[in-house]
């Protein structure tokens, strides 16, 4: 785990500190995972942009909170064409839970990513998922071990990177799914050119996912043109601002469809 957190934004530092204190599970999880690359390929074959839509009740960088049932939101995202889902399980800062993920995965037939800040092997065992997020910046020397531990349980590890050095570390750890986070966790600023700079350095064998800052269908097309095999989209689909008063599952389905149809409908 990265103990040098002075260069992190205070909100991220707080998340990381909470993650270090969070207990893991006593037993060991074994997962029969749904393939994320296969789900992306199926979406492509159907003429859809491969989107991982994120069930994110709230976050330190989002205004408002969704109070909808996570299962209803997840089903609406699948209705809108999402190839896969991401479910927040971090409780203190994102209002997520492993129970939300468990219920969502039982309700849908697409791959489900567990979005959390995992820093120890025993935290992998909290809940079954198809894909687990491992953030290179937080794991340093432990990254390769966590990638192996995740695979040993049947998970598909998605390694998140933001810099060339982190990309190199992910590749050295044997990562086959790599997410490039356009958000700098030090300043919380978003720059889509981050993905554009790193994508050419990833080998063809890697499934490459663009994360953060994809706010419009035009952004989605930009990331796809830069080489993204898939897109992880949260706030633009959840539309959290003002959702306490006006949000509906229909909004979420329509928002998802805006992105999954971004290459065919020409929305800007």
UniProtKB/TrEMBL annotation:
Keyword annotations: Amino-acid biosynthesis, Aromatic amino acid biosynthesis, Decarboxylase, Lyase, Tryptophan biosynthesis
Catalytic activity: 1-(2-carboxyphenylamino)-1-deoxy-D-ribulose 5-phosphate + H(+) = (1S,2R)-1-C-(indol-3-yl)glycerol 3-phosphate + CO2 + H2O
Enzyme class: lyase
Gene: trpC
Similarity-based family: Belongs to the TrpC family.
Protein name per Swiss-Prot or TrEMBL: Indole-3-glycerol phosphate synthase
A biological-process GO annotation: L-tryptophan biosynthetic process
Superkingdom per UniProt: Archaea
Pfam families linked to this entry: IGPS (PF00218)
Pathway this chain belongs to: Amino-acid biosynthesis; L-tryptophan biosynthesis; L-tryptophan from chorismate: step 4/5
Keyword Cell inner membrane assigned: no
PROSITE patterns: IGPS
């Amino acid at each position: 785990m990265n103990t040098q957190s002075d260069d992190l934004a205070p909100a991220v530092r707080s998340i990381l500190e909470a993650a270090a204190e969070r207990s893991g599970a006593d037993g060991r999880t074994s997962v029969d995972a749904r393939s994320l690359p296969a789900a992306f390929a199926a979406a492509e074959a159907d003429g859809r942009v491969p989107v991982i839509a994120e069930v994110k009740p709230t976050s330190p960088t989002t205004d408002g909170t969704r109070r909808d049932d996570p299962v209803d939101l997840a089903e609406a995202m699948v209705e809108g064409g999402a190839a896969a889902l991401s479910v927040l399980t971090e409780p203190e800062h994102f209002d997520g839970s492993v129970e939300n993920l468990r219920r969502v995965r039982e309700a849908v037939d697409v791959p489900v990513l567990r979005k959390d800040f995992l820093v120890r092997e025993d935290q992998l065992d909290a809940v079954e998922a198809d894909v687990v997020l491992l953030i290179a910046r937080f794991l340093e020397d432990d990254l390769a071990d966590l990638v192996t531990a995740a695979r040993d349980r049947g998970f598909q590890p998605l390694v998140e990177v933001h810099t060339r050095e982190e990309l190199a570390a992910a590749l050295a750890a044997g990562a086959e799914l790599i997410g490039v986070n356009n958000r700098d966790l030090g300043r919380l600023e978003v720059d889509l050119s981050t993905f554009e700079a790193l994508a050419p350095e990833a080998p063809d064998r890697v499934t490459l996912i663009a994360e953060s800052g994809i706010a419009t269908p035009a952004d989605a097309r930009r990331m796809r043109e830069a080489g993204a095999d898939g897109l992880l989209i949260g706030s633009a689909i959840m539309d959290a601002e003002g959702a306490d008063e006006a949000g509906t599952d229909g909004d979420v389905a329509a928002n998802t469809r805006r992105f999954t149809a971004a290459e065919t409908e020409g929305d800007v």
